[in-house]
Structures are given as structure tokens and as C-alpha cells.
Amino acid sequence: MTTAIEQTLETYGIENWGAGYIGVNRKGNLIVRPSENDTRTADLKEIIDDLRKRGFTTPVLLRFPQLVAAQVRKLQRAFRNSIREFEYEGAHMCVYPMKVNQQRSVVEEYLREGSRYDFGLEAGSKAELYAALAMEQSPESLLVLNGFKDKEFIQLAFIGAQSGKRVVIVIEKMSELDHILDLAETHEGNLPMVGMRVKLYSKGSGRWEKSGGEAAKFGLTTTEILEVIRRLQEADRMDMLRLLHFHIGSQLTDIKRIKNAMKEAARVYAKVKQMKAPIDYLDVGGGMAVDYDGSKTAFDSSANYTAQEFANDVTYTIKQVCDDENVPHPTIIQESGRFLAAYHAILITNVVDEIETVVQDITPIELKEDDPNTVVELSDLRETIGPKNYREYYHDALEHRDELFTMFNLGLISLEDRAKGEVLFWDVCERADKYAQQAKYVAEEFDDLRRLLCAKYLTNFSVFRSVPDHWALDQLFPILPVHGLNKTPTEYATLCDITCDSDGIVDKFVDLHDVKQVLELHPLHKGEPYYLAFMLVGAYQEVMGNNHNLFGAPNEAHIHIDDDGYLIKKVIRGTSIGEAAERARYERSMLHDGFRRQVAVRVKRGDLTEAEGAEIIEFYESRFSAYTYLAVDGAESRSKRGRE
Ligand SMILES: *Cc1c(COP(=O)(O)O)cnc(C)c1O
After folding, report:
1. Quick one: fold of 373-451?
2. Within 10 Å of residue 412's Cβ, how many Cβ atoms?
3. Nearest CA to ligand 1 atom 10
4. Centroid of ligand 1 to alpha carbon of 211 (angstroms)
5. Is the whole-model pTM more than 0.85?
6. N or C: which end of the chain has fewer CB within 10 A?
7. 389-415, pLDDT tens digit by residue?
8. Which CATH architecture has domain 65-345?
9. pLDDT digits (tens, 9 = 90+) for 420-456
10. How remote is the C-alpha of 632 from its chain's centroid?
11. Number of the ligand 1 atom closest to the C-alpha atom of 287
12. What's 198's DSSP letter?
């Protein structure tokens, strides 16, 4: 017998995408484990209740730094196994690409664990480098610099090397080499190393396919590579050339493409090495995918390989090519970001209400003698629809609805008639939907209908701030309730955010075999909070999130999990209303003066008393430090359909 909890585990696919970190406890609450299948757990509902008591309401971003460390270990272990198994003679090191999530707490936790394996950092801009230079790295670890660089960027790289870091400047275009050679003449002591980013013919797969291939934005062509080598030789600086780099895209879903790219890159490495270049690092870039939907396929939000398979293929392919070309095995440098950061952050927020998108029956319909024919017809359809005729009747209803609007536009029927017709029409649809779901075969038009008819849960967050990739790239994130997982969900819903943008919706959900158009959720009960978790949002989302509608960064809490459960280590208040306004250059003093001036005019005119004026000013000014999100905790109404 399967229990309700086992059933919800399956409904939401928790064990498919949870990577051993996520589960459900006996209370039916969502839990996080600090490492794979750990017995220590943190109850997310308890954390949210605790934070609420301290005055931190949802949305809240929960950070579990231990999951960054756990992913670091998983990756390191995979490569250690492969290196041992294939008798690979080089080492493996990571450099964490800061652009994935630059938050200091993420980078610090990564370095704390990663330094044990000489994992370093990767910076792609002057600001990232500026931050990276102050971080403590292990002596052998690298600081790799990608991206387009001007002289100032390269100067910063040189002082980084002088300060003792093992800096590698990866040349993306020829002018960077000129600056490097110039600066090398005037700098003493420890110089940075030089790498070359190669443009591979091989492409990745998935959404970031454009990052690779001949037309890619980044990388040197074959003739440029030969030119860099020639110029380094000419300047007697060949000793600086230590690394070869490529990166064919993020979220690489297909292991075959990765192997092909690896073959090509290893061959380039071998050929350059044979030209007496002292290269000993082969940087294979990032791109290790996260299986967001848990389907283990080459689908955009998944990956058809495990970390171990990835490590095996990379290590084995490089070894084979190097042995064939008779060159030593290079140290493998990996720039995985998404894989390390995605799991550690979870956004939790509350459903505020259910909103109506289709016309609902507010007062019971009463037919009258003089009702227009269309209304009468719709009413007949509603009374006689059944399992045998529902499809035909649904089509008839669509026709009558068109007729209804035509007549309304011609001025032939009243607003009351129109409302009556609409209610009847949607009633027929609901009944048709019910029969369709009972049928053996469901026609596609009824899938679309289901999406129209399902509940729309108004959820206290901004898609643009917290899951921008869902909006921009149709990327899927697992979404599920934080509590009540011991009860079977009986509603179907899509989510609407609180921005006033019609793109601010989530209507695609993870599924093992397909993409779900509606999510199974529980009915709302008035006054009771219903919390949802957006999982795996630790990579890219925070950085790419924007200020649409001036919704700011959510509240944030850092959680440590130990034998006694969770420990809230740090709480950071989200952006306040005033701070959000200031981002758009409305300074506090300007706003407060502006409001006071307007009130003063009203008081002078006698429209407001002094006391009333003072009161509204006080309220206005107190909003400066309030939260930008809705201050609603319990649901504002109960579910309309209440399929319980
Ligand atoms: C973005 C980027 C990465 C990180 O890719 P992930 O898919 O997050 O692993 C690594 N290297 C370079 C050069 C990048 O631009």
C-alpha cells in the first residue's frame, strides 16, 4: 500500500530531481539534508514559522551553504574516481565561475570546502576580479580570467599575480596579448600565466548551443592561435603560455556532444604542446548540467548523464588523445558553476489567493421568457451534456459564445444577457472538461481547456526577480508545497506572480515524461498560509533577477543543519520600499520633501487639519523601510472549486 507521502513524493518527482538532498518528513513537511541521504534534516515549514516570529515574512530565500560544499565534494569525488580508474596522470581542479552567483556567502563556502582540493576561482569582469583578489585561496589553486579585457583589467591581473595569486589571463582576442606583453616588460616578480580560449568546431546541445561552434562570440580561431604562439615566441615569453580553454555552453544536456568537444579540444592541446608550448592545464569550461526535472534525458531542463559519467568521459577522452599524440596528460581545470550552486538556494513564498480568469457564477442563473436564443441554447447544452456528447456540445458552446459576442457588439443584447451567457458557457466547459478527463483518450483541445479552467494561484513573488530564467528561457524549476505533503493534492493550478505583467506567470512544471501545464496543489483555506518552495534556484537566478515593478530582493536566511535540526545563522532583510525607489533614483529626502509639500498645500487650504496632515506624512515616511512584497500571510479566500 502506498501512503499519501509516497504518492506526493512521486507527484512532485522529489526523488528524481532532489539529488538525495530533499525529502518529506512524517509531518508531511518538506525537508533538506546537508549531504546526500544524510540523517540530519531541516524542516522548511519550521524554519518559515520561526522566521515569521522574528519578523521576516515570505518571500524568503533560504540558503543552505552546506549544499554548495556537498556538490563540491560530489564533483571532486567523481573526478578522483575517474583519474584512478583510467590511470590518468594529471590532476583535476575547479575554478568557480563567479558570474553564476557572486554572493560572498556562496563563494566563501565554496572556497572553504574547495580549498582542500585546490579549487580556485574564475572571474569574467573587473568587478568580479576585484572581489576575487581579496579572497583567500589555497596556494596551488588558480584564478582564471575570462571575458573581454582592456588594459586596466589586465593591470589588475598583474597586481593579482604580484600579490601571490596564480592568475591565468585567458586571451579572448588579440589586443589582450598586446597589453600582456607590454605590462610584462614593466612588472617585476610573479607574472600572470597566459591561456588561450579556442573556438571549437563542436557545439554543445540545449539552450546554450550558440556558445560553441564556429560562429561563437568567444575564442580564437586556428590562425589566431598560431599567431599568439608566434608572438609569444618572438617576445621570448613562451614560458607564460600555460593553459588552453574552451567552453561550449551552459546546461549541456547531451553527453555525446560533450565527448565530441573534448576530443577536439584534447587534440588542439596535443598539437600546441608539440609546438613546445609549456601548456599543462586544459580548461574544459563549465556546462555540467543540473537535472531540474529529474528525467535524466537530453531535454533542456535535464541531463542524460551523471557527474560520474561526465568525469569518466572527460578524463578518458583526454587520456586517449594524449596517449595517441604522445604528450603528457594535462591537469584538468573545470569551470562548473551551475552544478555547484543550483541546489543550495530555495525560494519560499505564500499563495495569497485564487484569482478568477474565467467567468464564475456569482448569483445562480435564472432563465427568463425573453432571454435571447443563444442564452437558451447554452442553457440547454448545460442541462443535457454527458459522456457521449461532451465533445460535440463543447463545440456547439464555442459557436454560441461567438454568437453572443457578435450580438452584444451589434447592440442586440444587454450586459445582463451577456453575463448570463458567459456563465453558462464556462459551466458547459467545466462539465465538458470533467467528462474529457474521465475518457480513455483526451483530445488536445481539452488539455488547453484544462489550462484555462484550472485555478490560478496568486503567489507572493516576482517571476522577474526570483526565477527570471523561467520567463526568459522557459527553464523549469521544481515547485511544490512546503507542508501538507501527507495529503493528496486535489487542485490543478498555475501560478501568477504579483507584478502587473502578464508574463509574470508560471504555467510549465517539471514532469518525468513531459512538461506539466498545471501543477497539483492543495485547496486554499481562508486565513491559513499555503507555502510553496521554488527549488534549485541557486545558480544564475539571483544575479539575473531584476527590479520589475520595483519588487526588490527577498528576505534571506542562511541555514546550517546539524544533529539538532536547523540553525538560522544569518538573516538579511530584503530590499525595502524606499531602497527600491532609490534604485530608480528617487532619493529619500526628495520623496519625503515632495510628499510633505503636497500635504502642506492641502493643510493651508484647509482641506486637511494639521493633525491629519501629520498623520498621513508619518504613515508615508514609515513605508520607507517596509517590505516590497504583499504583507498577507494566510490565504484571503478559500478555493472556489474546492475539489476535496
Ligand atoms: C558561464 C561560464 C561558465 C559556467 O558555466 P556553468 O554552466 O554554470 O557550469 C564557465 N566558464 C565560462 C567561460 C562561462 O562563461
Report:
1. Methane Monooxygenase Hydroxylase; Chain G, domain 1 (1.20.58)
2. 11
3. 286
4. 10
5. yes
6. N
7. 999 999 999 999 999 999 999 999 999
8. Alpha-Beta Barrel (3.20)
9. 999 999 999 999 999 998 888 888 888 888 888 889 9
10. 25
11. 7
12. B
